[in-house]
Specification:
- With 66 residues, the chain is mostly helical.
- The protein has one domain.
- The protein contains 3 helices and no strands.
- Helix 1 packs across helix 2.
- It is elongated, with a radius of gyration of 14 Å.
């Protein structure tokens, strides 16, 4: 089950994990970006049999960027 990345979650995580205070506006922007990266990672993970070469990680991220 995929959980939704909300601005509230971003603000909570920033505060608890990094000691940072994030504005509501910036949290909304970050939530969109984090959700996008999370979705890309989940898509890439579905094709990964865990025997892939670790050095391909950067190549995979670059390919998913577009």
């Amino acid at each position: 089950m995929q959980n939704k990345i909300t601005p509230e979650l971003i603000r909570l995580m920033a505060a608890q994990l990094c000691g940072l205070e994030v504005t509501a506006q910036r949290a909304a922007q970050l939530a969109i970006e984090v959700a996008r990266v999370n979705d890309a990672a989940r898509t890439a993970a579905a094709d990964n049999d865990l025997n892939d070469e670790p050095s391909r990680y950067a190549v995979t991220l670059a390919a998913l960027k577009s």
